[in-house]
Amino acid sequence: MQVRSAVFVKSVADPSGLLKRPIPHFVFSGRSNVGKSSLLNCLLNRKGLAKTSRTPGKTRLLNYFLINDQFFFVDIPGYGFARVSKKEQEKWGRLIDTYLTDTPFIGSVFQLLDIRHDPTAQDRQMIEWLQQSDLSFRIILTKADKLSRNKIAQHRRNIAKSLGMDEGSLIATSSESGLGIREIWAFLNQAFEE
Ligand code: GTP
Ligand code: MG
């Protein structure tokens, strides 16, 4: 697929602001700082479309990007950011839960994990939530450029094993080198053919 247009549409802080337009949503989920916004930009080849930052917790809102006037990429705020109050974490949980439960057009959720680390308790919680939902989801491993080729394979195997998943379903990516970007697009293209 060729990206002809990629436009920021809206930031949402509250469930009442969620969009109801009946086109597919592809969602970028994961721990704060895991590389959601960077991956989204890399897929679209648009630097700076989604704001990235070294400081975790940059994406505090749910951000919609409209691609080719045909589908949304949705950058959802990262969890696990220590400096967020309990009250704010609960608000986050409600927003994401409502979004994922009440949007009937979720094409797929990309659940991002840092390839260097074991999934955290919150990662596992999110993955379990996805597994018990009817949503389609894919595990995406980020920041692969920080590891050697051998280590990429080894970490991918270990993470798959610890999640009880098929290793082949995990996509190793890098927003720096572009590793895995074609594979994600192949998955997206397939989703549109179904
Ligand atoms: P929040 O918005 O806080 O939830 O974070 P995020 O998941 O959107 O992460 P973001 O894309 O802002 O990236 C966080 C930091 O990791 C930035 O300093 C990025 O440059 C860096 N980063 C993201 N992806 C990669 C990658 O593939 N390789 C390397 N080396 N760094 C990356
Ligand atoms: Mg972000």
From TrEMBL:
Leader sequence segment: none
Superkingdom, natural source: Bacteria
GO terms of biological process kind: division septum assembly
Protein name, per record: Probable GTP-binding protein EngB
UniProt record similarity statement: Belongs to the TRAFAC class TrmE-Era-EngA-EngB-Septin-like GTPase superfamily. EngB GTPase family.
Keywords: Cell cycle, Cell division, GTP-binding, Magnesium, Metal-binding, Nucleotide-binding, Septation
Molecular functions per Gene Ontology: GTP binding; metal ion binding
Cofactor annotation: Mg(2+)
Stretches assigned to the EngB-type G domain: 22-194
Function field: Necessary for normal cell division and for the maintenance of normal septation.
Nucleotide-binding as UniProt keyword: yes
A GO cellular component annotation in the UniProt record: cytosol
Pfam families assigned: MMR_HSR1 (PF01926)
